[in-house]
From TrEMBL:
Domain of life: Bacteria
Keywords noted in UniProt: Membrane, Transmembrane, Transmembrane helix
Protein source organism: Candidatus Woesebacteria bacterium GW2011_GWB1_44_11b
Transmembrane segments: 9-26, 32-51
Protein name: Uncharacterized protein
Amino acid sequence: MFLSKRKKFVFIAVVLSVGFVGINFLSDQYRFLAIGGLTALTTIFFVWSLWEGLGRNATLL
């Protein structure tokens, strides 16, 4: 899926914002698990947004 940098930024911002707001509605037993999942999702989005600029040299990661 090819998106411009602006569209990627908006998509990532909306998804993570909904995730952070959604954590407030979870019970305490699932909250830490959801925070861990959101952390993993943030890392995946970070790599996705930088992927085309990394090329063969992935030293930023």
